Amino acid sequence: MSSVPSSQSPPLAPRALYEEVAERLRQRIFNRELEPGSWIDELKLCAELGISRTPLREALKVLASEGLVTMRVRRGAYVTEMSERDVREAYQLLSLLESDAAAQVARQGSEADLAELQALHDALEASLPHRDQFFAANERFHLRIVELDGNRWRLQFITDLRRVMKLNRHHSLFMQGRLQDSLQEHRDILHALLQRDPETVARLMRLHFEHGLQATGHTPQDPVQ
To answer: What's the pTM?
Structure first.
């Protein structure tokens, strides 16, 4: 019996079918092919994807655990629709979590960490005027700050919140002039990080989220602290 040549790696185990289905549906939701509030037609999707209902239902459970899908008794699955309260509370939580993470990085981040954030910010600057590229670069910058902080629970909460925030119909960066305002706020945040000023960077990050919330047309019931 011949052996596998040493130059070849053994094949990777294929991803479970329901995970593939979940990823396809996730991207359809993010691309607005499945709109917030819309009913998910399981039979139609099964026919489109050429699968049975079992992997589809497992995929829907995954998306429900992420907050992207809402399961309703005897009515099926719907793409989650964010209420005004949902948007406000998500911004307030992100403000608290990310401002504290940024302060920790200002205190404890290495020179290499700060250089990496500078490079990510440079990519953000270069992404204008391409909105989709700006969105992606913006998210990389924010998530990298949280990763550098090293609190895995905080990272998980923020990742989940940011995923659900993509459902927001009134995303703040769609507002006229908000891209430029957001970019200037990032410049100020980066400057405070490079100056290793945790109090200032935390304050600027909170303001960044407060301004983002205001740009959606919502205002906090209580000022973001």
So the answer is: 0.79
Query: Would you write out the chain's pLDDT as a tens digit for each of its 225 residues?
Result: 444 444 454 554 456 898 999 999 999 998 889 999 999 999 999 999 999 999 999 999 999 999 999 999 889 999 999 888 999 999 999 999 999 999 999 999 999 999 999 999 999 999 988 888 998 999 999 999 999 999 999 999 999 999 888 888 656 555 667 888 999 999 999 999 999 999 999 999 999 999 999 888 766 554 433
Distance CA 188, CA 191 (A): 5
Indicate the residue type of 185. E
Q: Is 72 helix (H, G, I), strand (E, B) or coil?
A: strand
Measure the CA–CA gap between 183 and 179, rounded to whole angstroms: 6
Q: Which residue has the tokens 């993470």?
A: 101
